[in-house]
Structure formats: structure tokens, C-alpha cells
Amino acid sequence: MSATIFAHEFRSRLRSAAVWSLGVAAIIGIFFSFFLTFADQAALVNQMLQNFPPQLRAAFGIDRVNLTTVEGFYSYIFLFAQLCLAIQAANYGFGLVSIEETELTADFLLSKPVSRSSVLTSKLLAALASLTLTNAVVWVTSFAAIAVFRGDHEYDSRALLLLLLSIVIFQLFFLSVGLVVSLLVRRVRSVTPYGLGLGFGAYVLSAFTGLLGDVKLELITPFRHLDAMRIAQEGAYDVPLVLLNVAVSLVCLVVSYVLYVRRDIPAVS
Amino acid sequence: MSVIEVSNLTKYYGKSRGIVDVSFKEEEGEIFGFIGPNGAGKSTTIRLLLSLIRPTSGSARVFGKDVTTHGPEIRRDIGYLPSEVYYYEGMKVVDLLKYSASFYDRDCAARMRELSEIMELEMNRRISDLSYGNKKKVGIVQGLLHSPKLLFLDEPTAGLDPLMQRRFFDLIREENARGVTVFFSSHILGEVQRLCTRVGIIREGRIVEISDIRTLQQNNYKKVRVTAEGLTAASFDLPGVTNVQTENGTVHFFFKGEINAVLQKLTGVRVADVTIEEPTLEEIFMHYYE
Fold it and tell me: What are the structural domain ranges in chain A?
């Protein structure tokens, strides 16, 4: 671990982390401000939702959530926060070492007296620090939004905490999968399409699982491993799926280290 | 002590050739010229020595340590100026140099200032605003600021104006006088000839010649020009004479062998002018490539 690389990396991602944090905060704050409108007209809302085609309700998970409770409504918004967090983490993962290679600064960094594993550790920790910044903003905004907009509705703080605690596992998954893919493909020319692809892809898979009721697909998407609405409803994680999620992240990290230590840094051509 | 020791080093990128079976040594304090055209494998060799890429087979040692296992340790005392310079575009020159210096466990501030004054580097400009030549100057300061013991220069003068090139060469000579070993890769043979004591010539990934520049020049053919009345091409019908040309009473040809044989041919004639020259590195180099 090199403090110097950590600081450089963290600083270079600071603006991006701030923008993502503001974005996620806005989603949570603005959407949750509608809570009372929904909660106070519970009967009407439920009736309206019943009118949606069942496939649509399944795809968006609407039939599994009670939008008239604080944790139910919050968990529904949390899904969109998760989507942003996924894309952000995937972007950081894909860009972690590939940006240096496309911008050809890798030669500069790797001709310094630091080992590859130390470079990767510093970069990973810096990216995690940036993600934690966003994570912290989500915590603060969530508590603030609920405090301000819940009116006199009570809520289950356990469910809320479980949701918020799941963020770090969720981020780690997309960071490490993004990283390993970026090391497996020959060259990542632009990070954004990959990041969007991985984030949205995982989300769509999860939506399809709802639609088809297919059990196998849920094994591969973190949106199912850490299904917000299910966590809110049951007040508990689906432990085997969470463990699967963590295991995938760890395997990706280990493989990334192995690949990066042996990697040929492409030259200008 | 050999600072660089390369034995049977081979690198393939998939199926395409990088270098094949390259072996050479560079002793401490030498300036070793590594010459060859684009794509011959010069940069590949340097990148292998910096462990930016891994060898397919063979081994390389720098400061007596294997490059694949002791990379970070070795790089503490290495300065590297790449042929193409790319730095973090958003950074200021001074921040980049400080970042670079922060990797070394010594105080580089004074040397950094000194070098940037010599190279007339504007410290407060953004990297993205710099011209190619100015980026190259950043590269030079960045490569030298930690007072390395071994310098890798990969086509270092491209983009520098003649004034800066001269300052740069003076810098390299000063460093060398302090005992710094220099590995100088280039295809500009004039500058190699000016600076280096020994050269390796690489062609299509393989070393074709490693020799002292002096020996290379002496053991090669000589260029002979004689101006005298009554001389014809036939006058120099000797073994070792090639490329005979006659022009306005001047005969010139290449000669390889015992020079007295040529001189004896001249004893009977009244010579107006005669020159016997060693070939330039460029001419020798072209010879290897023809």
C-alpha cells in the first residue's frame, strides 16, 4: 500500500464521487418527499397499482412492496439508489487500472519503485474510500429524508439499517467484477459503456427474474442477492445469497491480483 | 560490476515478435547505445528491464537482481525517460514532479528545482497545455530528479529543439561523470556516436552486433579518396576494395584490409590530395541493414 498513490487516486476521483453522491442523495431526498402523499392515500395507491399489468408489476417488483409504509416506500426508492451505486462502483472498477493504460500514464506509475500488488491495493482502497464517501452521503440523506418526510408514520429502523449496511457489499461486488473484467479483456477503451452495461445489465436481470419467476438468474445479480424490497419486508438478509455475493467479489479480487501482477502493460503503438 | 545483464531474453506478444534471444551486458559507468529502426525491439527491451512486461523466456538482471522478482527494489535507482511522454493531463507540472518525487525515500526538491531551471520548464502550467517538446522536458526532469544510478533513455531527444538537446546531452554527460550508467536507445546515430562508448545494434528483434564504437569504426572499411593525375579506377585493383567511383580525377572507394597496400599504390604517383576516413556510425548501421 502506497499512501502517495492512494492520495493521488482519491483526489482524482473526488469530483466524480461528489457528483454521484449528490445524484443519489437527490433521488432519495426528492422521491421520499412524496411518501406522505402515497401513505395518506393508501387505498387509492394500491388500487391504482392493481390496474397495472401483472408483468409490469412483477418486473418493477411493485407487487412485492407495500408503498404505504416508511420502510416499504424507502426500499422501493432504494432500488434506484442501488442502480446508481452499481454504475458508479462498476465505473470505478473498470477504470481502476484501464484508464492509466488508455491514457498511457501506466508507464510513469509502474516505473516507480512500487510493486504491482501495492499499486493495486492502493488503487482499490482509494476507490473504496470514494465509494464510502457516497455511501456516507446515502446514510445521511436517508435518515434526514425519513426524519423530515415520514410525518407521524412509525418505521422499522432494523430494516433501514440492513438496507444501508448492504451498500458496502453491493459496491464491492461491482468494483471487483468491473476490475476483473477490465483485466480479462484486451483493452478497455472507454469506461462508461462497460460501467453502464454491468450496472444496468445486473438490474435488468433482476427485473427479468421477477418477470419469469426464474430462480437461476437470481444467483448472478446483486440486485437479487441484496433485494431491497425483500430485506425491507422480512427485516433480514437472504444469507446464502449474500454469502454468494461476497464470495464472487472475493474471487474477482484474487483473480485481479493474479492477473495484474503478471500483466504486460501495453505500449504506445 | 555489470549493471545490466541480459541473457537470451525473448519476448513474444502472442505470436508477434518483440525480441528474440537478446544477450548483452552493460558495465557500471558506461553509456551504452542501443540502436535500431522503429519496431526492432528497443522499447521492448527497456520495458522488460523495467518489468513493465514479462519475458517469454530468458532472464535479465539489473544491479545483479532479477527483474521479474526484484522489480520495485531495482526501480528505486532507475530513471526512465520514455519515447512518448504521457502524464496525468489535469495535473500541474509541479504537482506531477512532486508526485514523482514522493515515490523515492530521499529529498528531491533541490534537484527538481535545479533541473527545471536548466531545462527552462514552466512549473505552474497544466500538463494538458504543454507542447510535445515541453512534455518531453517534464519527462527529463521527472526521470532525473531522484538522482538515479541507471538511466533508461528511449529516443530522448525527439521534440527537443537543438538548444535543449545540447543542454540535455550536457546533463547526461554530467550524470555519467558522477558514475551514472546510461542505456541510450535511439535511431539517431549522430547522437549515439557523440555520446556512447559502446553500441548494440538490434535488427528485427535480434542483436546483430555489440562493440565499442571505436572498434566498430576501426575494424570496418575505410573511406578513401585520392585526387591525382593519371589515376583510374583500375589503379586500385586490390583485394578489399569496393565501390570504386571516379569523378573529375578523384577516385573514391571503400577499403577493408591492410591500409599499406593502398599506400603502396600511391607511392609512384603525384598525389594532389588524399583522405582516409573512418565510416560514420550511420554508414556502418546502413551496412548491417542492407
Answer: 3-262
Domains of chain B, by residue range, sit at: 2-217, 220-289
Probe site for chain A from B65, B88, B185 (most A CB atoms < 10 A): B88
Nearest to B72 among A115, A265, A268 (CB): A115
Domain B2-217 identical in fold to domain B220-289: no
Q: What homologous superfamily is domain B2-217 in, according to CATH?
A: P-loop containing nucleotide triphosphate hydrolases (3.40.50.300)
Q: Tell me how close the Cα of B39 comes to any Cα of chain A, in angstroms.
A: 10
- Measured in angstroms, the CA of B54 and the nearest CA of chain A are apart by 6
Test B87 with A105 for CB contact under 8 angstroms: yes
Please give the CATH architecture assigned to the domain spanning B220-289: 2-Layer Sandwich (3.30)
Comparing CB atoms, the residue among A2, A12, A110 nearest residue B52 is A110
User: What is the per-residue pLDDT across B171-199, written as a single tens digit (0 to 9) for each?
Assistant: 999 999 999 999 999 888 788 888 898 99
Contacts of B66 (CB under 8 A, 6+ apart): B59, B60
ipTM of the predicted assembly exceeds 0.90: no
Q: Is A114 in contact with B90 (Cβ distance < 8 A)?
A: no
Question: How do residues A134-180 score in pLDDT, each as one tens digit?
Answer: 999 999 999 999 999 988 888 888 999 999 999 999 999 999 999 99
Q: How far is B53 from chain A (nearest CA, A)?
A: 4
pTM: 0.88
